[in-house]
Amino acid sequence: MKPDDAAYQFIKAHYPDCQGALLAGSVVRGEATETSDLDIVIFDQKISASYRQSFLEFGWPVEVFVHNMISYKDFFKSDCERARPSMPRMVSEGIILKDNEIIHGIKQEANALLDKGPETWSEETITTKRYFLTDTLEDFIGASDRGEALFIANELASLASEFVLRTNNQWIGNSKWTVRALKNYDETFAGEFIQAFDKFYTTGVKVDILCIVDSILAPFGGRLFEGFTIGKHK
Which residues of 83-166 form beta strands (DSSP E)? Predict the structure, then answer.
């Protein structure tokens, strides 16, 4: 069954009295793979608290994200505070399956948040993030054990991508969304970033990663160690 048809039938079978429903995720973006599921956002004023549930229905794995008319606002807020706007993005991109005249307003809220972008990092936050990125980079440089170096590289990729995105007022991502966030920021930079880490994973060569991280830190004074303090009382 086609994804939109399956989603519509799913709503009729499981949430016939809901006030609104949206189909979101990779099938909507045209990025579906053989393991993709149907992400469905449901608005039901009768439920007391939001919840998530998984199903196998109509030939599809289905993930439902069920909210009342207040709980979705809490998720909007928390997602934006962590700079990973999962819920606003699902609502913004979602195809309407059912609407009792509520979806348009909720979509407007989501779009406004996405357009605004995340809160700008303070100088204190930048300094702290710069220090821990430097610390992880130095661990990576000094790592002689292959296993340790692999896991340090993973952490370095996470910290470096977060730093470059947040200091450029961009949303961040997790897992596959990290790559998508980098590409959304700068396709060329994203390609260089991925290539640098891929080269290390396949050949063990670290220098390209060092160059990438140093280029990220350079506008903020480069690597930071001496003089950094946290939690010290005057």
Answer: 95-99
Taking 50 as the pLDDT cut, the residues of the chain under it are none
> Is the CB of residue 49 less than 8 Å from the CB of residue 94?
no
- Residue 170 tokens read as 């961009």
Amino acid at 97: L
Residue-level pLDDT at 201: 97
Q: Scanning the structure block, which residue is given the tokens 């990092």?
A: 121
pTM (two decimals)? 0.88
Element (H, E) at 182: helix 176-185
**CA angle, corner 216, sides to 212 and 222, nearest 5?**
110
Residue 61 CB coordination number (10 Å): 12
Residues forming a β-bridge with 65:
41, 52
| Cα R_g (the chain), whole angstroms | 21
Is the four-CA dihedral 74, 20, 41, 104 of positive or negative sign? negative
Provide the 10 A C-beta neighbour count for residue 116.
Answer: 11
